Automatic annotation (TrEMBL):
This is Glycerophosphodiester phosphodiesterase. Residues 1-21 form the signal peptide. The keyword Signal applies. Residues 90-423 form the Phytase-like domain. It comes from the Bacteria. Keywords: Signal. The lineage of its organism: Bacteria, Pseudomonadati, Pseudomonadota, Alphaproteobacteria, Hyphomicrobiales. It comes from Rhizobium fredii (Sinorhizobium fredii). The keyword Signal applies.
Length: 452
């Protein structure tokens, strides 16, 4: 038996072991289910400009201002969701990142508003301190912190540049992930992408541009990019797709490092993106919290077959973490349209096939390489033997067939919390004709958390 043959066998075994590790599924059991109704609207602060007292005024197809409240039907593709824009107030929707606190409460945040930079200039950016009553199945807001930039830290003119209060909106930043610390909050952002720091009152103190391998990472929404005046000249270069910035931002257990996980893969050239283990891979980059400088260290997160994006990211210990990975489908597969290119109001355009939470390992040895995927739980088939679900699922199980599931953190040694981003009023994955609520679940995943 030759050395080359042995080497080939060894390589095959290693590849098989890696693949098996990635596809290793662990059980999850629903222990509690809480719901914040989709149409939960809160008032803007008293000192906010009148422009911010209503929201969603520019969500028409032609971007023209909608003057009359509730005059623009919300739709998921061609399916009406039952809610209409503009809203009288600010929606407490789009929970996009969560952190469990020692007292049993949670911090979360609403993302940029109505899906993009142009239609979200009247959507206020806010953080939420919430208490979940698992027995009653309800979510209570203890405090809402509206984000602002009174000290002019944003390196560009904000939407409310000339106002006294200078509240931030979804036309300025797309905030997607949160890490509360003693002196405020670290927030991961998608437009730049930036890592942002706010004090405890919600005042912006730092805007940190992203560098990977010493080079800028730029999305097409980065405010430093500008079109050429001459059509014969090249357009500005960017290396990240729109909505590909920080969907996940994790904090090391000692609080000294932040780990930003991009939602989209970096483009190497106009035809290819970064890969690891034969799959498109997303960068995890390390930031020193004290100096606010990038350390130069990073890891690659390879997407699973069928995976298209990540939803949230939180550390379990110094080496392992939780990551939500998903496809872009919504709704049950058995109610999907026959032809996704011809969506109809009575079927889901593309059904949900992959909604998972992975446990990953980041070590010194795999810096610059792929993280190790230890295993996953399937959010489309969560065991519910005691029938604790309040909606969705089926006989003996609960499911989360939402296009965006963007909240996960460990609650204790055996449980995690998981929640969706309902993209109000545009996502309808639970029902064909009803806007998704904000759903939070408590899952028993003891075997998964112990897995090595």
């Amino acid at each position: 038996m030759t050395k080359s043959f042995l080497a080939g066998v060894t390589l095959t075994l290693l590849m098989s072991t890696s693949a098996l590790a990635e596809e290793r599924a662990f059980p999850a059991t629903l222990k509690a289910h809480a719901i914040l109704p989709a149409n939960t609207i809160i008032a803007a602060p008293a000192d906010a400009a009148d422009y911010l007292k209503t929201s969603g005024k520019f969500s028409t197809a032609d971007r023209k201002r909608a003057q009359e409240l509730g005059s623009v039907p919300g739709k998921d593709g061609v399916r009406p969701t039952g809610l209409s824009l503009p809203f009288n107030g600010q929606p407490m929707q789009g929970f996009s990142g969560i952190k469990a606190m020692p007292d049993g409460t949670f911090w979360s945040l609403s993302d940029n508003g109505f899906g993009n930079k142009l239609n979200s200039t009247d959507a206020m950016l806010m953080l939420h301190h919430v208490k979940i009553d698992w027995d009653a199945g309800k979510v209570q807001a203890l405090e809402t912190v509206f984000l602002s930039d009174p000290d002019r830290k944003a390196p560009f003119p904000i939407v409310m540049e000339g106002s006294t209060s200078r509240y931030l909106t979804g036309g300025d930043f797309d905030v997607e992930s949160i890490q509360p610390v003693a002196d405020g909050f670290w927030v991961g952002e998608e437009f730049g992408p930036y890592v942002l720091k706010f004090d405890t009152s919600g005042k912006l103190t730092d805007v940190i541009p992203t560098l990977v391998d010493g080079k800028p990472v730029l999305s097409p929404d980065n405010p430093t990019l500008a079109l050429q005046a001459d059509p014969s000249k090249k357009t500005p270069a960017f290396n990240l797709k729109r909505s590909g910035g920080y969907e996940g931002l994790a904090l090391s257990k000692d609080g000294t490092k932040l780990y930003g996980l991009l939602e989209g893969a970096l483009w190497i050239d106009s035809e290819s993106v970064e890969q690891a283990e034969g799959r498109p891979a997303l960068r995890i980059v390390e930031l020193d919290a004290a100096s606010k400088d990038w350390t130069g260290r990073s890891w690659l997160y390879p997407l699973a077959e069928g995976g298209e994006a990540i939803g949230d990211f939180n550390m379990l210990d110094e080496k392992t973490a939780l990551v939500i990975e998903r496809d872009n489908g919504a709704g049950a597969v058995d109610k999907a349209c026959a032809d996704p290119k011809e969506p109809k109001p009575d079927c889901f355009a593309v059904g949900s096939k992959l909604k998972r939470i992975y446990k990953i390992e980041m070590t010194e040895e795999n810096v610059g390489k792929a993280v190790r995927k230890i295993g996953y739980i399937d959010l489309l088939k969560v065991a519910d033997p005691d029938n604790r679900k309040r909606q969705g699922g089926g006989d003996g199980y609960y499911d989360m067939p939402f296009v965006t599931i963007e909240n996960v953190d460990r609650v204790d040694d055996t449980h995690i919390v998981v929640g969706n981003d309902n993209n109000l009023p545009f996502s309808a994955g639970r029902a064909l004709d009803k806007a998704d609520d904000n759903e939070f679940v408590l899952l028993d995943v003891s075997e998964f958390l112990k897995a090595e």
